[in-house]
């Protein structure tokens, strides 16, 4: 029943042919069509500005105080594009192939190929906006290699690539706001989708300053609301990143794709105590020159500098001689966990490994190391108080990105007609593991170059739909649901803070649905989460009122949704009895402890369908067919 | 890691039109590895547990890049550490027994919405008045068709590093937004992509800055001193030059 609407024809021609055949909407009709965009990160801002340029009426919403603050801004490393400026043999096909393989063969060939095709356009667009990418002395764009691929295809802007790309998209959005083509609503949070006669027709939002509930009609609704890593409580996501918009969509009929596919990034600053509110990523590029090790004696409490060379275990170099410290993220993360679980971890919590630059400084000199990593070393020192030039960094894996998300077809439309999902909030391009510098690429590909075309296929059939008045009963009902829920939260006579309940959820998720998963733990996690959900609604205490600015109320609604999502993630992890990418099932590993995929039984994407509060969700399958690449077991030995 | 106890004097204000005032709180058992915002999280959880309203403050990425956090700590925007946002400030820079005063940005164009949260939408409107290159999606030439020397590119980048937090305004006696506005004008004036709209951009953005009620530059450099991204006041000189150049060109 899932129709992924992949166009016919050879892989490399699908998108070109699609673009020349997709129905157009005339300028006169575009003026009459309203499109709602939720979220202003790379995907949302680029989609909103591009569609406004094309002539649609766009309304855009973000919960932050300005569209420029969306969490895309925190991306450090870079953005991939198959430009082959370095003349090192890169091509659209290679970028496509690396992405499919990196995703452990759990993504859709046609979508990934399209992503690789438009990657070049993204760089052109951003340069034209004035994004200050790194340059060579001759004035051309600089590239670096990233994430262990064999070509240099990553464009970057110091360690602030996400910031510069987002400010570019924000500037394009600002231009359209000034022209009156986009109406921007800052500090507004989407609380529900309005579905009329089976189609998405609007949203309920709450003005976070005044607390007012507002109704907005749209011929189509686009969610660009990011990932759900904060289900783990601690992650590298911004504090406000949440699943609420996507979760409401799920409950209104949009299926959720591969919810258990989570990326756990190997190089983050370790947790230092119970008070910790978030984790900070240290760019993957550090692994180009840093060496990862632990002592080879359990519980060795000596200072790292006092541990002689022959008592150190450079475990990545030992286990993976071919790739060493540059193995992909999922492999590096699991290896760190394995060392710490078996008692070799370091630091006060013993949940950390060393990332050491001693040899790099000896080989390259402190100046070169400082030129490459100075800003990262500075950030590390600000947070930990330790100086990485003289003492090894301590790092540990942390939740960073969610490959899963709303299931979408080739048009990026969910299973609710008229409801689209772009960027990290869809499940589309990264399969079971995302390669470095690919999240920015996908967000901007969807927003600048894919959705503005594909939405036309839907809207061209909708040109006769008049604006539906927002006093329609479905708007009444959706607004009432949103109000009732907030009233219930505020009037609950409980004793527990939202924060403490969120922390409990994070603990359950991290222990049972984190870097390693097994049947027994996942099964018990389902009942733990269900009991947490009851606790939440019995015991949560939310102070204040709903007709004023009330951050605690906002947080409560988001955590309530995270709890429900957590259960779905665990169900998905339980259902997928294979290891693939970031999803490691302990029952499915080789004798050497490496992940073992099961292509015979699991070459599909899971699409979970909501069936009601009291009933279990249904898992639908989208079978994945690989016409172009051959499935192989990943090996980094 | 040493434990510490603090007295906090925090500005509390219900809404834009309500009177505000300082309220004192004590927080005990803090840890020197906590960030400043985690210290406030501890206070807020304590307030929630006693049925009080937590202190409202803006924050999001907690990595020093989104520009959302905005507090004046002991009289200094983003606190005592140079080149650091509030979220990257850690408690090891305070002493056990300290009294710490926490206030919102104070500037007429940034009205207080609640407690430590202010309205910074004037910054958005200034960008809308010209802080962009008018290039529609799909109409860009190849990235390498626009060569830009590394020095120029680096200089533009230094300006582009602005996170739009508003500390420059909070630091300025005149509540001038000059550093914020100058950073964007300079970034685009330095780059070839910004040339076609160079004059109308500076005129439009400066006019919007004035219309929003920001004051004149004091030339004291307080903005640079407090800027968490250490953006140079030289860009203000450049903005002034750009402004006069545009007026001369008519």
Structure description:
The complex is a heterodimer of chains A (637) and B (250). Chain A is an alpha+beta fold and 637 residues long. Among the domains of chain A are: 27-263 and 401-459, FAD/NAD(P)-binding domain; 264-400, Succinate dehydrogenase/fumarate reductase flavoprotein, catalytic domain (Flavocytochrome C3, Chain A, domain 1), CATH 3.90.700.10. Chain A is built from 17 helices and 19 strands. Chain A has a 5-stranded parallel beta sheet, with helices on both faces. A 5-stranded antiparallel beta sheet of chain A has the order 11-15-14-12-13. Chain A has a 4-stranded antiparallel beta sheet with strand order 16-10-18-19. Chain A is globular, with a radius of gyration of 24 Å. The two termini of chain A are 41 Å apart. The model of chain A has no long low-confidence stretch (mean pLDDT 96). Chain B has 250 residues and is of the alpha+beta class. Chain B folds into 2 domains: 3-114, Ubiquitin-like (UB roll), CATH 3.10.20.30; 120-249, Fumarate Reductase Iron-sulfur Protein, Chain B, domain 2, CATH 1.10.1060. Chain B contains 8 helices and 7 strands. In chain B, the strands form 2 sheets. Chain B has a 5-stranded mixed beta sheet with strand order 2-1-5-3-4. In chain B, strands 6-7 form a two-stranded antiparallel ribbon. In chain B, 55% of the residues are buried. Chains A and B meet through α3, α5, α6, α11 and α12 of A and α1, α2 and α3 of B.
